[in-house]
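#lab-general

N.A. 3:47 PM
ok so I finally got the sequence cleaned up, no stray characters, all 150 residues accounted for. can someone with queue access submit it? mine expired

B.Y. 3:52 PM
send it over

N.A. 3:53 PM
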Amino acid sequence: MREFRFRLEPILSIRRHKTKETEIALARVDGECIKLERRMGELYAERDRAYREGRSADLEFRVVQAAYIARLEAALTEAGRQLEQLESERERLREEYRRVARDEQVLDKLRERRADEHYRGERAAEFSEMNETGINVTSRRNLERETLQE
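B.Y. 4:20 PM
back already:
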C-alpha cells in the first residue's frame, strides 16, 4: 500500500505556524490586560486607603493628600486608557485567530478527506488485485483438471 502524500502539506504547515504565532500574540496581550487590570485594582485600593486616612484637620496633610490622590487618579486614567487600547488589540487578535484557525481547519479537513479517499482507493485496488489473483488460481486449477480428465 502506497503512503499518502498531501501535496498541500507545506501550506498546511505554514498555516499551523501562523495559528501558533497568533495564539502566542493573543496570550501576550491577554496577560498584559490582566496585569493592567490588577494594577488598576491596586490603584483603586490605594486611592480608597488614602481617602480613609485623610480624616485629619491638618491643612498641610490635606494638601499632600489631595496631590497624592490626584496623582493616583491620573495613574488610573492612564491605566484605563491603556487597558482600552489593549482590549481593542485583544479583540482584533481574537478575530485574526478565529480566521487563521478556520483556514487551518479547512486545510486539515481537506487533508483528512483526501487521506481517507487515498486509503479507500488503495484498499479497493488491493481487494481487486486479490480477487483477480483468486480468479486466476481458480481458472488454472479448472484448466488443469480439464487437461487431466482428457
